[in-house]
Design a protein that fits this description.
Largest sheet: 7 strands, mixed
Helix content: 25-40%
Strand order of the largest sheet: 5-4-1-6-10-7-11
CATH superfamily: Spore Coat Polysaccharide Biosynthesis Protein SpsA, Chain A
Shape: globular
Radius of gyration: 18 Å
Number of helices: 6
Number of strands: 11
Structural class: alpha/beta
């Protein structure tokens, strides 16, 4: 029977947060953002083990409780997110057989409900090319030119905003990502590497609470979700009403 692993790239500096502390270590609901993220993955019984890709000079990681979990391994991350993910995949490839699967999850998505993770896992295992969490676009989407002028309005019924985790056959993703990096392709998520390699990737609708903390204002939103999830973990997956 195949096993499921996870990779969390956490070697970045989070430049858009305008903070001296890398965003994965900023406090949210009483703990580092990365602590919440790792805990969400480790709460899923399907996950056999997890690799966190870290900056080699990172000493803040030693303060995280989840990194002391025997299921968690560390590896050295790279200059870009794709490099860190590949480093994690390479570490897993040494111990994982050819039919194993992997989840890749952003370090800055701390509010992932286990129920939504389970839905992704159940769906992905039925698709050779894997699956991702994503949300359908609800806003009107404009395409603009370099001068900031509207070119056209896109059909939002076909547009989805990709989230993580994204789940794929481990060795297929490793090969696809390595080839994309080698050829200098612009890879913003793992699905784009798999698409480029010719795989068909399924979409599973993800929850609104699974936000990526990118700018300072996102911290308060994440804290609200985490606080609400702690109070009612099986209920909070959607939007918080103002």
């Amino acid at each position: 029977m195949s096993s499921l692993w996870a990779v969390v790239p956490a070697a970045g500096s989070g430049r858009r947060m305008a903070s001296e502390v890398p965003k994965q270590y900023l406090p949210v609901a009483g703990e580092a953002l990365l602590e919440h993220t790792l805990r969400a993955l480790l709460a899923c019984p399907d996950v056999r083990g997890l690799v966190v890709a870290l900056d080699p000079s990172d000493r803040r990681a030693d303060t995280l409780t989840s990194l002391a979990d025997p299921r968690v391994m560390r590896t050295t991350g790279g200059a870009e997110r794709a490099d860190s993910v590949l480093a994690g995949l390479n570490a897993l490839a040494e111990i994982a057989p050819g039919n194993d699967w992997v989840l890749v999850h952003d370090a800055a998505r701390p509010c992932l409900p286990v129920a939504d993770l389970k839905r992704l896992i159940d769906t992905a295992k039925g698709h050779e090319g894997g699956a991702i969490l994503a949300q359908p676009c609800s806003d009107t989407i404009k395409q603009v030119d370099e001068q900031g002028r509207v070119i056209t309005t896109l059909d939002r019924s076909t547009l989805w905003r990709a989230q993580t985790p994204q789940m794929f056959p481990l060795h297929a993703l490793r090969d696809a990502l390595a080839a994309a990096i080698e050829e200098g392709a612009h890879i913003t998520d793992e699905a784009s590497a798999m698409e480029r390699a010719g795989y068909s990737v399924a979409v599973v609708e993800g929850p609104a609470c699974n936000i990526k903390v990118t700018v300072p204002a996102d911290l308060s939103i994440a804290e609200a979700y985490l606080t609400a999830q702690k109070a009612a973990p099986s209920v909070v997956t959607g939007k918080i009403e103002s």
